[in-house]
Design brief:
The chain has 234 residues and is of the alpha+beta class. The protein has seven helices and four strands, in the order H-E-E-E-E-H-H-H-H-H-H. It has a four-stranded antiparallel beta sheet. It is rod-shaped and about 145 Å long.
Length: 234
């Protein structure tokens, strides 16, 4: 094994990754791996691209290929994947596949495994970010609902409210009675001030008025009589 297997694998890879593979030397090449990322409603950034550089050692595939992972030049930083910081984690995920594939062409399997690992990492981070948003939204909704629902009613708070309500109603009823009595009294006074002659007669007030007048007349008569009896001397 060695050079023949490497050449045969390269021919297969050229047919599969015709637009993604770039030759650097006979034993060194690079494959661009576009990731498929589910975009949420508020996400508009482009899916990241991984660049996997593969170098064949002389005895590959009996020993693993040399691998390097990078991002395209001037690629925008993705929210959920930082290739510079995440490449060690992503490359370590390839180790089980490498160990199982020794002695066989493995680059195609490594590319697929790397793609799946990166997409899973992004998905996990998206889910974590969405969970935080959901928690914040739930807190905001709970706070908004609290404005409308107020304090939860318990037996103790209800009994205290009922006692206050009954007291307020009793005080309001007492005030209503007092106001009604005062209003009725005012009406009686005004009604008596506007009594007609008939009403005075029916209530026995006419006789009282005449008696008062008679008493005044009799008093005046007693005063006038002595005056009339006086004689004026010439």
């Amino acid at each position: 094994m060695g050079r023949d297997e490497q050449t045969e694998e390269r021919e297969v890879l050229d047919s599969i990754f015709a637009d993604e593979i770039t030759d650097i030397t006979d034993t060194l090449y690079r494959i661009a791996i576009p990731l498929e990322v589910v975009q949420h409603d508020d996400e508009t950034e482009a899916a990241p691209i991984l660049l996997l550089t593969i170098a064949y050692p002389e005895t590959y595939p009996d020993i693993p290929p040399d691998l390097a992972l990078s991002a395209p030049p001037d690629a925008p930083k993705h929210t959920y994947l930082d290739i510079q910081n995440d490449k060690a984690r992503l490359l370590s995920a390839l180790q089980p596949v490498i160990e199982e594939s020794l002695g066989m062409a493995m680059v195609f399997t490594l590319v697929n495994t790397l793609k799946d690992s990166a997409e899973l990492l992004i998905s996990e981070r998206q889910a974590a970010a969405q969970a935080l948003k959901d928690i914040e939204a739930a807190k905001a909704e709970e706070e908004e609902n609290r404005k409308f629902h107020g304090t939860a009613v318990t037996r103790e708070t209800f009994l205290a409210w009922r006692e206050r309500f009954r007291k307020e109603m009793a005080e309001a009823e007492e005030k209503r009675k007092e106001d009604k009595e005062a209003e009725d009294k005012k009406r009686r006074v005004k009604a008596e001030e506007r009594l007609t002659g008939k009403q005075l007669f029916e209530r026995g007030l006419v006789g009282k008025v005449e008696e008062d007048e008679d008493e005044v007349d009799d008093g005046d008569h007693d005063l006038i009589q002595p005056i009339q009896e006086l004689k004026v001397e010439d």
